[in-house]
UniProtKB/TrEMBL annotation:
Protein name: Oxidoreductase
Cofactor annotation: FMN
A family per Pfam: DmmA-like_N
Lineage of the species this protein comes from: Bacteria, Pseudomonadati, Pseudomonadota, Gammaproteobacteria, Pseudomonadales
Molecular function GO labels: 2 iron, 2 sulfur cluster binding; metal ion binding; oxidoreductase activity
Amino acid sequence: MQVKVVRKYEAATDICAFELSRPDGGDLPVFSAGAHIDVHLKNGITRQYSLCNPPADTQRYLIAVLRDANSRGGSVAMHGLEEGELLEISEPRNHFPLIADAEHSLLLAGGIGVTPILCMAKELKAKGASFEMHYCARDASRMAFRERLALGDLATRVHLYFDDAGPSARVDLAKLLAHPAPGKHLYVCGPAGFITVVLETAKAAGWDDRCVHREFFATGSTPRASEPGSFQVKLSSSGQVIDVLPDQTVVDALLAAGVEVPTSCKQGVCGVCVTRVLAGEPDHLDFYLSDDEKALNNQFTPCCSRSKSPLLELDL
């Protein structure tokens, strides 16, 4: 669908917020906390950005974008947009939803990872649900929506931490995650390193994987296959077998054979390309699937993952 950039403003150092509305002023499709939209930029790049306004707000979508020094073009293009410009976006999708019957929700955000977490906090507050939010940033100037969090209706539920303020002002994850419970759910979003530390701390504290939810924005680095090499994929619909070379992704091999799989991040982060595996053992190199999902070996991300077996049969 088409939307207009009705407002663009600085939410923090190197972070721009964008308010998007329909050009005709009509309602936008509804969404739930944790949802994101695909933004199709003029340079041919598609990127996902989490919605951070309250889900009850149907007149606008609010997103925030960090200008990344290592950008592959997405954040630079977004920061170059001006108010009044038109954009093509997808309808909202949610791979990071809140658990409706949670007794308590623990929300952790690092840096720009605050965007879906802020939306979650707004929804939980509106429902009168039990929750707390913990937000970490390098310094106060880089904390998006800081004034809104510190002074707004979420102030009593939000705890802010700054790396440059010394050890006493940093979050104590071991203490924060020390008491898992069946009805308690943890949600974390932010840089890959931040999420990894949170997940490792939660695991050490005995958290059930089913109560831990995360969303990566970028990988930082992509794990390498244990034994890089060629293998084959088989399409269940036609029986066609396609070779995948050592320096080729499954997505690229399929495309060369005339089979297109939807992709976006191409880093195993977004989940757009997740494909069912009917036979064979994938070599999971993504950051999207949970450990439990990977252990089932019934789906994988062909944008980056490979195969441990000579042949993978795909539901394509």
